[in-house]
Amino acid sequence: MFELSWAHPIFFYCLPLALLPWIFQNTTKKIAWQGFIPKDSLSGVLFVLSKLAASVAMICLILTLADPYVPEQIVERTRQGAEFVILLDRSRSMDDQFARPPRNTLQRYTGVKHSKREVSRDYLTEFVKRRPDDRFGYVFFSTKATEILKLTYNKDAVLATINAGGLGRGISQTDIFKALSLAVNMYKDEPYRGSRNILLISDGGQILSTEQKQYLQDVFKKMRLNLYWIYLRSMRGMTLDPSDNDNLLWIDMPERKLHKAFKTLGVPYQAFEAGSLDEFAQAIDEIHKQQSQPLIVEERVPKQHHHDLFLWLALLSLFPLMLSRVITVWGVKRAAHKH
Amino acid sequence: MRLSYQKRILLTAIIMVTALVLVMAALWFPLVKRDVKIMDAIFVIDITDSMNVKDVELDGKKVSRLEWSKEFARRTLLEMPCGAHAGLAIFSEARSLILMNPVEVCSSYHDLTQMLEQFNPYMAWARSSEVSKAVYTAIRQAKKIDPKPTIVMFTDGHESPPINPTLFPKFAGTPGEIHGILVGVGGDELLPIPKTNDKGVIEGVWGVNEVMHEDVYASMRADKDVNPNKPRTEHLSSQKKSHLATLANRVGFAFVSSPKDPLDLVDTIRDESNTREQTIDYDLYAWFSGAALLLILLVFLPYRWFVRIDD
């Protein structure tokens, strides 16, 4: 538990200096005859003690310079929280405008247009900031899926990765199945710590084959995964669930097919349709209530310096030493005045 | 110099009192504010096929240019002072794709290295390698990040398809607006380029007839003066130093070819960057305790070896 490391162990080479007080004495006085000195066992003891104090003070100061510290440690604690793998769609379609008006409406300029990628970044940032105790991993996918950030508690790294996801343009097309399988594999290598979730952020749908669906169904159930989908609609008004005033064009959209497929997986699944950020925030809080399971979290205890301990020891040994020297001065002065 | 017994006793006492005061200062002297210079950087790693050529040496072993770049970037991260920020990006096709915005290097070192470790040819989304355009996109994206990071790009400078020496891809930005360093990777000898399939697995090498040997402009012209007869070597790769130097000059970057020591690269980054001043709390305890130690030593040094001591 209490293992000290040393930042500058090179100072250990100075430790032999602590022997100096035992070898040399610069404050002795030559006297003509030993017999002049009264026999005093107390001063003999004090003599040794003062040397000891000097040595201890020197050793402590050298150790202070060597900078003792307890290195950064990881402590496991149980908290309420969850693990999330974020699957971000980096395909080209994400560069398009978010919720554009249907083609048959009049074009009106309505302020700044945001790409779906920018919207997704805002949503994700909100998501991560609202869940301080969670552990996040990050995968980006287009036609290929790549695990970029392994599951981590480091919020700075997660947010920096999310922000980078909002930059630049998309690279290719979308393969959601590959992304989902990769996320599953990320959990496979990890011990079960608590609620496991996959957060998919995508604008596109995909028709899953029967085998793919079967695979997802089996593996999601076996590994107790929950699935969330932040859906970024391309067109204004488009919803994942069919509604009464549906546009005819929307009925066979792959998004709806994927949504339906996810619903039949038989695992906890929830879709968020990006609308207003406030609504989304509420939905996140809702997840929070659902996922109030204990999660083993790793907490980093930062590096702690412990030189104060040695400084105190140095102070404690220096103080009597200093006192004895001052008294000596006083004694010698008085003796000199007597003559 | 001779000191009388009384003086020696007095000096020793004064020294002891001072040492005690110094130790107390080491314990209780308040932290002082000090400014340190920190930098923001984005490491861009070329993950195109030519980076798989094994012609660079790392700790005495021949490794691929990509492995070398990853390891050298990691060591550079390690040498960067705490408080400095670093981000990561990859380059494939004609673009740099920023994967992580700059984060503080010490607290996020683990995550930065974990991400760096993931960089492999599989991540490439297309098989071309247009270095100049990748540098331009990196600059364009860096402008959107606040504070503006310095771009540190590890590449061998191999352009595929080749570019016309006179018709260089146009740079729309202002040279020097974004600072950066091109780090040249690779040997001088032309070597065959391993060819990766769509799973990122190496399958043989690029053949002479599988790549373009002329730039798009020249390949469409039949006249001899535009299209002189020259050896077809674009399927082979070496570090294109002169091209990288030209490119660096065009965008106002520095060019470092095959650096040896990560510390030197950190120095170059510091020189090139717009460093920010960050105020940190600095504890003076080491100076105080060092001084106290020296004073105590003064009392016990073997003076009699050098001077005669009477009394």
Brief characterization of the structure:
Chain A has helices at 20-23, 41-65, 116-130, 155-165, 176-188, 210-222, 254-263, 277-290, 307-338; strands at 5-6, 68-70, 73-80, 83-89, 135-141, 145-152, 196-202, 225-231, 269-273, 294-301, 304-305. With 339 residues, chain A is of the alpha/beta class. In chain A, helix 3 links the parallel strand 4 and strand 5 (135-141).
Arithmetic mean pLDDT of chain A: 81
For the secondary structure, the number of strands of chain B is 14
Shape verdict of chain B: elongated
- CATH homologous group name of the largest domain in chain B: von Willebrand factor, type A domain
Number of strands of chain A: 11
CATH first level of the largest domain in chain B: which class? Alpha Beta
- The named CATH superfamily of the largest domain in chain A: von Willebrand factor, type A domain
Helix content of chain B: 25-40%
Low-confidence stretches of chain B: none
- Supply the helix-strand structural class of chain B: alpha/beta
Strand content of chain A: 15-25%
Oligomer: heterodimer
Main sheet: strand order of chain B: 6-5-2-7-8-13
Trace the largest sheet of chain A across and list its strands.
Answer: 6-5-4-7-8-9
Largest sheet of chain A: 6 strands, mixed
Ranges of chain A with pLDDT <50 over ≥5 residues? none
Radius of gyration of chain A: 35 Å
Helix and strand content put the structural class of chain A at alpha/beta
The mean pLDDT of chain B is 87
Report on the architecture of this protein.
The complex is a heterodimer of chains A (339) and B (311). By secondary structure, chain A is of the alpha/beta class. Chain A has two domains: 5-71 and 303-338, no CATH class; 75-300, von Willebrand factor, type A domain (Rossmann fold, 3-Layer(aba) Sandwich). In chain A, 40% of the residues lie in helices and 19% in strands. Chain A is built from nine helices and eleven strands. Chain A has helices at residues 20-23, 41-65, 116-130, 155-165, 176-188, 210-222, 254-263, 277-290, 307-338, and strands at 5-6, 68-70, 73-80, 83-89, 135-141, 145-152, 196-202, 225-231, 269-273, 294-301, 304-305. In chain A, the strands form three sheets. In chain A, strands 6-5-4-7-8-9 form a six-stranded mixed beta sheet, sandwiched between helices. In chain A, helix 6 (210-222) links the parallel strand 7 (196-202) and strand 8. In chain A, helix 2 (41-65) packs antiparallel against helix 9 (307-338). Chain A is rod-shaped, with a radius of gyration of 35 Å. The relative contact order of chain A is 0.17. Chain B is α/β, with parallel strands linked by helices and 311 residues long. The model of chain B has no long low-confidence stretch (mean pLDDT 87). In chain B, helix 2 packs across helix 7 (262-272). Chain B has two domains: 5-31 and 283-305; 36-279, Rossmann fold, CATH 3.40.50. In chain B, 33% of the residues lie in helices and 23% in strands. Classes of the chains: A alpha/beta (339), B alpha/beta (311). Chain A: It comes from Methylophaga sulfidovorans.
